[in-house]
Amino acid sequence: MKLLRRIFPHPHLTLLLTLVWVLLANAPSLNSVLFGLILGIVIPFITQPYWPDRPKLRNWPMVVEYILVVLWDIVVANVTVAGIILFKRDADRKPAWISIPLELRSPEAITVLAGTITMTPGTVSCDLSERGLNLLVHCLDAPDPDAVRDEIKHRYERRLKEIFE
Amino acid sequence: MEQIWEIVIAFFLIVSGVFGFVGSFGMIKLKDPMSRLHAPTKATTLGVGGVLIASILHSLTLEDHISLHELLITLFLFLTAPVTALFIAKWHIHRHETPETLPPTGGDGRWATHAVAPDNDTPEHTAN
Predict the structure, then answer these.
(1) Of A35, A121, B66, B105, which shows the fewest CB atoms inside 10 Å?
(2) pLDDT 10s digit of each residue in chain A, 165 long?
(3) What is the domain partition of chain B in residue ranges?
């Protein structure tokens, strides 16, 4: 068991790297799987010092749910934003900065949250406060900034909290 | 059967074309730099996503082989696009916003971009 841990310090990363390599080769031959596996063993081994306390993902069904929710939101928000760009006069649009108090503490979780906010159109995450307790977000059109804040907290942060903490 | 697939593929291509166009149009129409930042983050999601789905379907149905390269493009885009957007946003905050024009941090000091001590070595042409 201990030997296994030394060879695979990060089994998920090993799996991911192998998968990425096979996809890059675009042909699932034994050749590419083997070489992907070699990369998947060597890279986690070399980069080990760079992730001292990596978070444990606790809730795999929630990870799947989170990905689906985000993908769906991207589609819906794309249509909304396209509507704003095409049909709303620039003078009627209310861009706003909002500050989101964070309950998440692990840097990885905050990174995922900030990335999600940027990828869902209409909001871009811009900055963190000094000690990382608040996230600054810019909205393309927010007649009601508080509602945007509550939705982000409820839809994304709550789920990430269950995944990471 | 082939014709149905061609229609589906064409649909995805048109969707991605429309969103790509709207994203670029937004760059012209929106007037302030922070709002303009929203346009490219959008073109990379549905605009590129549509082409990728069309490409997967095309190789799967018309060429009879599986090609999943496209999933990697999506993955890499989702990793890189937020970082680029964050850099541009940080630049904007650094050059054009003051702590007074941004919302309060809720008692957690300043926003990180403003919390950096002013650099005396900053060359004249980049200083505010």
Answers:
(1) B66
(2) 677 777 777 778 888 899 888 888 877 788 888 998 999 888 888 888 887 777 777 778 888 999 999 889 888 888 888 888 888 887 888 888 888 888 888 888 888 899 888 888 788 888 888 888 888 898 888 888 888 888 888 888 888 888 887
(3) 2-98
Nearest chain A CA: its distance from B104 CA (Å): 7
A129 and B106 within 8 Å at the Cβ level: the answer is yes
Chain A residues within 8 A of B34 when measuring between CB atoms = 95, 124, 126, 138
DSSP state of A58: -
Q: How far apart are the CA of A159 and the nearest CA of chain B, in angstroms?
A: 19
Q: State how far the Cα of B51 lies from the Cα of A71, in Å rounded to an integer.
A: 16
Query: pTM, whole model, 2 decimals?
Result: 0.83
Q: How far is CA B8 from the centre of its chain?
A: 26
Q: Does A138 touch chain B (CB under 8 A)?
A: yes
Q: Which domain holds residue A128?
A: 60-164
As for how many domains chain A has, the answer is: 2
Residue A66 and residue A124 share a domain: yes
**Angle B31-B84-A82 from CA coordinates, rounded to 5°:** 45
